[in-house]
Design goal:
Number of strands: 23
CATH architecture of the domain at 463-635: 3-Layer(aba) Sandwich
Bound molecules: adenosine-5'-diphosphate, magnesium ion
Distance between the termini: 34 Å
Largest sheet: 8 strands, mixed
CATH class of the domain at 463-635: Alpha Beta
Length: 713
């Protein structure tokens, strides 16, 4: 057995299980042993039965609900049907040298065939005290309810090397039909067979320097830890390893890029001054500074790799327009990529308005539409990078609201970028999603950053309110008044969560597609409710991701022109859409969204001169939710909120790393700044001494795998 051995070849993994393993992304032995538990159940407290009896040493602990473990012989075992409650009870008696204990399982009749009278077993779970014999007649023994069980070899009692009981038990991310118990049953023998044969990709010097566990020990301790501390120690090692590999990967990409050539674009100050002078507003100093940094980058014959980060409404588009103008005036093409068609259309309009007077041809390319083939600047969606699209004279690529864009996509845009030398275009990415520093260091490898940390003048702060169910009606009235006064409203529908399995695990079967259909259902319901019951006197419209492009555009157009008062939408409107007359953002089920996303929604309003409001409707403000929503009320800085979100929830998926396929532990450790810095420093050192990693074939191999898995796009 090797790391690359497919699961099909692993003993006891039949086709039925293979399918389910694939659902968890597990295809090889490597995937099996690197499918880490996300928590542990503590069944390590193995005691004699008599200890929980009245006056026994564990009696007090027992009543506190702490789980115990008992080993003994099954002396009695039967299924009982209760008629009143229509349940099957499986009842067993466990006997050790000190006493007996009654065990009951509810509705698991099949248990009766997993062990039999006379078997030695280990039972683990919470016990209940005497005198609570509800369903059973006879002596009221101490009872253990729904215990976890494991059959033992009689000769090995007391048995200390158990898998499902008698220790800290790993609980894994599961999927339907694939339990932690089954995973333990598979993982343990695989680990035992392979762990000592695995070479450790983490260089020994580094392991020693930070006192990390060697690979074999770390693997064992993360699955079957001796205690919680050693599981933590193992976890830290793997987190470091992932961060270290990620850092090497990203730093090498950066080094490679630094060797590439790009078109040097001369600065045309005259035309830029003319452009800026013609704007209906004054640029903020942050905008000026960012534009200057970009123009300076463009002058160099090396590809720019710059992120323009600025809160919603901070005015990123006009900064991009300056860069585009400069490039086009120097005689080159630019491409501007937006994440949705709505946004692509909006930017097309904006650039056409801003740049047409400079005799610049603006084109549009989405899945459905193509305007002007030979444009100077082509605005589009992902359609821009599809096969066959060529920009023979491309010198600058701008990507809006999508910091996920990366190396791969740029490579695709470069296809067919003709000319003599192998030039690659400059890249400007723009985002309103503030990226915590640790994330930008690791994932983006220190790409150059321009910050718009200043809002255009005259913006009024959006007033944010948490609305409890009993205050809804009042809020609707308020909204009605504002609409009567000419304002417009966004209503964002709650994200519907995928069904959960009994263990509270996300059901792995729910695909992206089902997600959005669920969301559509939510929008339709909300639309019905608002248009019929709440605002029958207002014009209510609807927008969701499953509508045809034409329909979507029509709706947006109607909203822009004031034909719609209240627009009910999914998170389609999340990014970028600019409707200054919309002053109210109402978010239903606000607790279902992340902080960063809520902040994005809020950024859809407050774009004009009027006072704007953001109402957060919430049914069940739990503790964490409440903290999150209150954070939103108290802060209007996306940067501050991102840091808070990182603290409250961990990095979660607010910046989309799930889609990048980045390693979980590394992402979960981003809040640990010192670990991130250590990993990064070690990565730098190693690349400095050995850029091609010739002395580290194992690391090189890991990087190759990394490359396949991670797609920074
Ligand atoms: P974002 O950074 O969210 O992409 P936009 O570029 O869409 O923001 O700008 C939001 C609005 O602010 C636009 O209507 C834009 O014309 C306007 N705007 C941009 N810069 C300024 C400025 N310096 N002063 C006033 N308004 C500005
Ligand atoms: Mg924008």
């Amino acid at each position: 057995m090797e790391l690359s051995t497919p699961v099909e070849k692993v003993p006891r993994v039949g086709p039925w299980y293979q399918k389910r393993l694939k659902r968890l992304g597990i295809k090889t032995v490597r995937d099996i042993i690197f499918h880490f538990p996300h928590r542990y159940e503590d069944f390590s407290n193995l005691i004699p039965i008599a200890h929980i009896e009245e006056g026994g040493p564990a009696f007090a602990e027992a009543s506190s609900g702490k789980p115990f473990c008992f080993q003994g012989e099954i002396t009695d075992l039967k299924n009982i049907r209760t008629f009143r409650k229509r349940m099957v009870l499986t009842q067993a008696t466990l006997k050790d040298q000190t006493g007996t204990l009654k065990a009951i399982w509810f509705n698991q009749p099949y248990l009766i065939s997993t062990f039999k009278k006379g078997d030695y077993v280990c039972l683990a779970g919470k016990v209940t005290k005497k005198g609570r014999a509800m369903y059973l007649s006879g002596p009221a023994y101490e009872k253990i309810r729904n215990p976890k069980s494991e059959v033992l070899n009689k000769l090995q009692i007391p048995n200390s090397n158990l898998t499902h009981t008698g220790r800290l038990i790993p609980v894994y991310p599961e999927t339907e039909g694939l339990s932690s118990k089954w995973l333990r049953f598979i993982v343990k023998p695989v680990l035992l067979e392979i762990k000592d044969k695995l070479p450790d990709p983490l260089p020994q010097t580094i392991r020693q320097k930070f006192d990390f566990l060697p690979l074999n020990q770390a693997l064992w301790q993360i699955h079957f830890p001796d205690n919680l501390e050693s599981s933590q120690e193992a976890k830290k090692r793997f987190a470091f390893e992932e961060l270290f590999e990620l850092s090497i990967f990203v730093l090498r990409e950066r080094l490679k890029l630094a060797k590439e050539k790009a078109q040097a674009v001369p600065l045309n100050l005259g035309v830029i001054k003319e452009f800026v002078g013609g704007l209906p507003f004054k640029l903020t100093s942050a905008q000026k500074k960012a534009a200057w940094q970009i123009l300076k980058d463009l002058e160099k014959p090396r590809p720019m790799n710059r992120l323009l980060e600025g809160d919603v409404g901070s005015g990123k588009t006009v900064v991009a327009a300056i860069a585009i103008l400069n490039v086009v005036k120097a005689g080159f093409q630019t491409a501007f990529m937006a994440p949705t068609e709505i946004l692509a259309n909006q930017h097309y309009d904006t650039f056409d308005r801003l740049l047409a007077v400079f005799d610049i041809k603006v084109g549009l390319m989405t899945g459905k539409k193509k305007i002007k083939e030979e444009a100077d600047v082509t605005v589009g969606t992902h359609a821009l990078i599809q096969e066959g699209v060529k920009f023979p004279n491309l010198a600058l690529v701008v990507v809006d609201e999508q910091h996920r864009f990366g190396v791969e996509q740029r490579a695709r845009l470069c296809r067919g970028y003709g000319g003599q030398a192998k030039l690659i275009p400059h890249l400007l990415s723009m985002t309103a999603t503030p990226i915590p520093r640790t994330l930008s260091l690791t994932v983006f490898g220190d790409l150059d950053l321009s910050l718009l940390d200043e809002m255009p003048e005259g913006r009024k702060k959006v007033i944010t309110k948490i609305v409890k169910p009993q205050e809804k009606r009042e809020t609707y009235e308020f909204i009605r008044e504002k609409v009567k006064a000419g304002r417009q409203v966004f209503v964002i529908c709650p994200r519907i969560e995928p069904s959960k399995t009994s263990n509270g695990q996300l059901n792995g079967q729910v695909s992206q597609r089902q997600f959005s259909w669920l969301d559509v259902k939510a929008v339709k319901q909300e639309y019905e409710k608002l248009s019929k019951d709440v605002f029958p006197d207002l014009k209510v419209g609807m927008l969701h991701g499953k509508m045809k492009t034409k329909e979507k555009e029509q709706v947006m157009q109607n909203f822009k022109e004031g034909e719609i008062d209240v627009l009910v939408a999914t998170s389609v409107v999340e990014v970028g859409v600019d409707i200054p007359n919309a002053t109210i953002m109402l978010i239903e089920g606000a607790e279902k969204f992340g902080l960063a996303q809520l902040h994005q929604f809020r950024g859809r309003v407050g774009r004009g001169q009027e006072q704007s409001w953001c109402f957060l409707f919430t049914e069940s403000p739990g503790l964490i939710t409440n903290r999150r929503l209150r954070a939103l009320v108290s802060s209007d800085s996306g940067f501050e909120l991102a840091e808070k979100d990182l603290k409250i929830r961990g990095p979660g998926d607010f910046s989309g790393q799930r889609q990048w396929g980045l390693p979980d532990l590394a992402m979960a450790s981003l809040a640990d700044v010192s670990l991130v810095e250590k990993a990064r420093n070690e990565a730098k050192d190693i690349l400095h001494l050995d850029p091609e990693l010739e002395k580290y074939p194992l690391l090189r191999e890991r990087l190759r795998e990394f490359r396949e898995r991670v797609h920074l796009e």
